[in-house]
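Look at one record.

>
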Amino acid sequence: MAVFDFSHALECSEAVMGSLKKTISYRYDAVRNRVGMTDPDGARFTYSYDSVNRITEVVNPQGDRTTYGYDPAGRRTVKKLANGTRASFSYDAAGNLTRLANLKSDGTTISSFNYDYDKVGNRTVVLEADGSRVTWSYDATYQLTGEHRTGSTPYRDTYTYDPAGNRLLKIHDGARTSYGYDAVRFDLRNWLWHVFFSHSRTWSECETSPTTTLAI
């Protein structure tokens, strides 16, 4: 059971299993930011916000604090855990994420991801801390046509489409998945009619049936 106040904010939720009832309750500030939560065991979480209602701190029942920071544009720039580890975020002038770094308390890197984009904001490259690299390519209408990973766990995917933009084929490291569409009834609604896999399997969905079948 869920209970809401007059502003439709969730005040508490209850789960009942036989004679066992568990309740989670919530508290809000004047502008309906959630500022507290109490779990079924009485443990309390608290939440703090800045002057423009962005979350700045979460404190768990053990007193561990997770804090958040933002740039002047309102984008999150840092998330710091109680043990000192943190995630930092950087952006370009268009607001695209250009770097995500996960760091230990001493500043050493756990993992990092550097991103590049094309002129319309499609992600084209991500470079990871271990040197692994993923690249994406697009056609003239910005449909994804390729994805290629080098370094750890490498793979290569390619995609082709029909003139209406429906995906016809995906090739993943040589394994082919074909997609078919019914030209009369389904193209206008863009419903997927069947898929052909490279291992003699066919997935089909029928308009008159509520189920989806996979024939092997």
In short: The radius of gyration is 24 Å. Residues 1-62 form one domain. Residues 33 and 89 are 24 Å apart (CA to CA). Confidence is low (pLDDT under 50) at residues 184-189, 202-216.
